[in-house]
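Ticket reopened. Same input as before:
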Amino acid sequence: MNDELTIKIQAWVDGELSGWQARGIAKLVERDAEAKALATELRQTKAALAQNEMTVAVPELREFYWNKIRLQIEREEASGTKRVSPAPWNPLSIFRSIGLPLAGLAVAAAVATVTLNQFSVPGYDEVTATSDEMSTLTFHDQSAGMTVVWLQDNTDQPVQDENSVDSDDVI
Amino acid sequence: MMSRAALIFGLFIAMMSARAADMQLEAKLIWGSNDVTNKVKHAVVQDPKLSADLHRIFKWSNYYEITDKDLKIPDNKTGILQMSEKCKLEVKNLGKNWIEVNCIGNGKQVSKGKHSLAPGKWVTLAGSDKNNTAWFVVMRTVGK
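Engineering reply: fixed in the latest deploy. New output:
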C-alpha cells in the first residue's frame, strides 16, 4: 500500500473526505484486507486518544485570569516602557546591519565611478573650441614625447620684419 | 561572506584614493625669436632636453622662458595659471593624467581642448606672434 492511499484512509477515518472519495475508500476497505486492518488500527488509536487525553484546568476563574493579562498590558502602556531584552553584542549581527549595506553602497559607487570615468576621459587629444579667428593644427612628435597644438590667428597682419615668413612656414 | 564584502570595500577605498590623487602641473610660457638681443631681457630655456626639442621641432633660433609655474590640481578640479598679463590658463584635472585646458588671451577664449599628460611628456599650445616670433605654453606633470 502506498503512502497516498494510507493518507486517504486516515482522512476517511477522520471524516475529511468528500462524498465520492469517501465511498471509494469505503469500498476499498471492504474488499482489501490490508486497508481494512489499517482503518481498524486508526479507529482504535483515535478512540484511545479521545478517551485518555488529560484536561488541564487553569487554577483561577476564567475572567480573573484574562483580567490579570489586561491589567499588565495597561500598566506597561501607561509607563511607556516595554520590556525588551537587550540583544547580546554580536559582531556578525552588527556587520549584517551596517557592513553589508555599506559594502553594497561601495560596490554601487565603484561601478558608478568607473562608468563615469569612461565617459569623462577622451581617448585622444582633441581641441573642442577655438575663437572664430583661430584655426588649429595638432601633431605629436614621438622622439620629444610632445603633443603640439598650433593655433594660427587668421587675422594676423602682414609682418614688417625682414625675417617675416608666410604663416604656412611658421612651424 | 564577511571577508568578501570587506575585500570589495577595500578595493573601493583603494580605487577612490588612487582616483583622488592630485596632479602636480608644471607650465612654462616660452617665447621663440630669432632676435639675439632678447637674451638680455629674458633667460633662455633652462631644461636642456626641452630646449633641444624646441630647436629641433620649430624654426626659431632662440627660446626664452618668460614664466615657469607649478600648480597642484585636485582630481576633477580646475586650477588657474596666470602665465602673463595677457595669457591665462584654466586647467581642469580630468583624472588618469588627462587635462582640459582653456587658454585665454586678452580676456577672450583662444582655444579649449583635452590632452593626455603621460608622465614626462609635454603638451604644447603655441602660435605665431608679431615680428616673426612665436609663443609656446608647455605643460607636463611633475612628481610621482
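Chain A touches chain B through 48 residues (CB under 8 Å). The CA atoms of residues 143 and 149 of chain A lie 17 Å apart. Please confirm and we'll close it.
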